Amino acid sequence: MATIYYDQDADLSYLQGKTVAVLGYGSQGHAHAQNLRDSGINVVVGLPETSRSRERAAADGFEVLSVAEAARRGDVISMLMPDHVQKGVYEEYVAPELKPGKVLMFAHGFNIHYGRIVPPAEIDVTMIAPKSPGHVLRDLYRQGIGVPALIAVHQDASGQAKQLALAYAKGLGCTKAGVLETTFKEETETDLFGEQAVLCGGVSHLIQAGFETLVEAGYQPELAYFEVLNELKLIVDLIYEGGLKFMRYSVSDTAEYGDYVSGPKIIDDRVRETMHQILQDIQTGRFAQQWMAENDAGRPNFSRMRQEAQQHPIEEVGERLRAMMPWLKARQIPS
Ligand code: NDP
Ligand code: MG
Ligand code: MG
């Protein structure tokens, strides 16, 4: 059974009189900065001079410093810029400011687990990884609910690393929902596997393949869109609220029977074997290496695949249909 920490296990006083430097003000950064501040903790924000996020952080009332200056001021330094830039930012601006007693924090284990960042032994290195995008972390904090998070300790130089991380989690509101104990290794590998095999890679390609199968067979793209994409939201809501068994209870017996007989044909032994290979590439670090090399090369393949994916016919149909369903609050990628 997982160890789960709640409000009574965490003490905000571990952060009293300390300054948290939030480096990055994107999805996670803005939510961490604002939730911690509302919990009575002293927060400064660190961003490059050229950052587009500076204006937003300043408008939200934060003292916005250079990354180096924020790292200097912070007793706790929270690395909330994109994973692929963290190594560079760490080496240039953060490492020179690390003094014994400081705490380096992450919201994802990638850079520590794959050895891209190797902090000195005299500092604490911990992770609080909220299990939601930043805007949900912020919204649920304001509603007094909080989102669940993971906690991990990579280095405990002070002897208080876990208590400090738990205090940080409490400041985010996460101990209201529950904070599960893990390791950097487990968090990183399961997070990457989940997003690749199921959440992002698996689901999006399942949707596209289903859409293509129907359209190639001569069915109207609009119907295909409704059947394989739009309805997914309703199914996922049922699964989220009551598990697979509640979804199967809610759909028709015909749908449930089709689930049992056709599902295993889609997710067959070949797919399971591929899942194993994907997991192995994550465990050996091969995926991480490939992704960082792609960044170093200026993202040629990533940019091409993104562009190709955005031009898939399902996107054009979807855009038209979503415009006819104002209640679902259609969204666009900001330019
Ligand atoms: P975002 O991409 O949303 O935000 C990036 C922020 O970092 C922006 O403010 C950006 O500024 C700034 N930034 C970019 N480059 C630098 C730099 N060189 N130095 C300092 N700041 C920089 O990131 P996320 O919030 O998604 O991710 C942050 C961390 O949180 C990652 O480790 C991620 O894995 C983790 N995480 C993310 C979750 C999510 O749902 N998004 C969930 C849980 C964990 P600018 O506007 O100028 O680009
Ligand atoms: Mg992830
Ligand atoms: Mg149906």
UniProtKB/TrEMBL annotation:
<feature type="binding site">
    <location>
        <position position="191"/>
    </location>
    <ligand>
        <name>Mg(2+) 2</name>
    </ligand>
</feature>
<dbReference type="Pfam" id="PF07991">
    <property type="entry name" value="KARI_N"/>
</dbReference>
<dbReference type="GO" id="GO:0009099">
    <property type="term" value="P:L-valine biosynthetic process"/>
</dbReference>
<feature type="binding site">
    <location>
        <position position="134"/>
    </location>
    <ligand>
        <name>NADP(+)</name>
    </ligand>
</feature>
<dbReference type="InterPro" id="IPR014359">
    <property type="entry name" value="KARI_prok"/>
</dbReference>
<feature type="binding site">
    <location>
        <position position="252"/>
    </location>
    <ligand>
        <name>substrate</name>
    </ligand>
</feature>
<feature type="binding site">
    <location>
        <position position="191"/>
    </location>
    <ligand>
        <name>Mg(2+) 1</name>
    </ligand>
</feature>
<dbReference type="InterPro" id="IPR000506">
    <property type="entry name" value="KARI_C"/>
</dbReference>
<feature type="binding site">
    <location>
        <position position="227"/>
    </location>
    <ligand>
        <name>Mg(2+) 2</name>
    </ligand>
</feature>
<dbReference type="InterPro" id="IPR036291">
    <property type="entry name" value="NAD(P)-bd_dom_sf"/>
</dbReference>
<comment type="similarity">
    <text>Belongs to the ketol-acid reductoisomerase family.</text>
</comment>
<feature type="binding site">
    <location>
        <position position="231"/>
    </location>
    <ligand>
        <name>Mg(2+) 2</name>
    </ligand>
</feature>
<dbReference type="GO" id="GO:0009097">
    <property type="term" value="P:isoleucine biosynthetic process"/>
</dbReference>
<dbReference type="InterPro" id="IPR008927">
    <property type="entry name" value="6-PGluconate_DH-like_C_sf"/>
</dbReference>
<protein>
    <recommendedName>
        <fullName>Ketol-acid reductoisomerase (NADP(+))</fullName>
        <ecNumber>1.1.1.86</ecNumber>
    </recommendedName>
</protein>
<feature type="binding site">
    <location>
        <position position="51"/>
    </location>
    <ligand>
        <name>NADP(+)</name>
    </ligand>
</feature>
<keyword id="KW-0100">Branched-chain amino acid biosynthesis</keyword>
<dbReference type="GO" id="GO:0000287">
    <property type="term" value="F:magnesium ion binding"/>
</dbReference>
<feature type="binding site">
    <location>
        <position position="195"/>
    </location>
    <ligand>
        <name>Mg(2+) 1</name>
    </ligand>
</feature>
<feature type="domain" description="KARI N-terminal Rossmann">
    <location>
        <begin position="1"/>
        <end position="182"/>
    </location>
</feature>
<comment type="function">
    <text>Involved in the biosynthesis of branched-chain amino acids (BCAA). Catalyzes an alkyl-migration followed by a ketol-acid reduction of (S)-2-acetolactate (S2AL) to yield (R)-2,3-dihydroxy-isovalerate. In the isomerase reaction, S2AL is rearranged via a Mg-dependent methyl migration to produce 3-hydroxy-3-methyl-2-ketobutyrate (HMKB). In the reductase reaction, this 2-ketoacid undergoes a metal-dependent reduction by NADPH to yield (R)-2,3-dihydroxy-isovalerate.</text>
</comment>
<keyword id="KW-0521">NADP</keyword>
<dbReference type="GO" id="GO:0005829">
    <property type="term" value="C:cytosol"/>
</dbReference>
<dbReference type="GO" id="GO:0004455">
    <property type="term" value="F:ketol-acid reductoisomerase activity"/>
</dbReference>
<dbReference type="InterPro" id="IPR013116">
    <property type="entry name" value="KARI_N"/>
</dbReference>
<keyword id="KW-0028">Amino-acid biosynthesis</keyword>
<keyword id="KW-0560">Oxidoreductase</keyword>
<keyword id="KW-0460">Magnesium</keyword>
<comment type="pathway">
    <text>Amino-acid biosynthesis; L-isoleucine biosynthesis; L-isoleucine from 2-oxobutanoate: step 2/4.</text>
</comment>
<dbReference type="GO" id="GO:0050661">
    <property type="term" value="F:NADP binding"/>
</dbReference>
<feature type="domain" description="KARI C-terminal knotted">
    <location>
        <begin position="183"/>
        <end position="328"/>
    </location>
</feature>
<dbReference type="Pfam" id="PF01450">
    <property type="entry name" value="KARI_C"/>
</dbReference>
<feature type="active site">
    <location>
        <position position="108"/>
    </location>
</feature>
<feature type="binding site">
    <location>
        <position position="53"/>
    </location>
    <ligand>
        <name>NADP(+)</name>
    </ligand>
</feature>
<comment type="pathway">
    <text>Amino-acid biosynthesis; L-valine biosynthesis; L-valine from pyruvate: step 2/4.</text>
</comment>
<keyword id="KW-0479">Metal-binding</keyword>
<dbReference type="InterPro" id="IPR013023">
    <property type="entry name" value="KARI"/>
</dbReference>
<feature type="binding site">
    <location>
        <begin position="25"/>
        <end position="28"/>
    </location>
    <ligand>
        <name>NADP(+)</name>
    </ligand>
</feature>
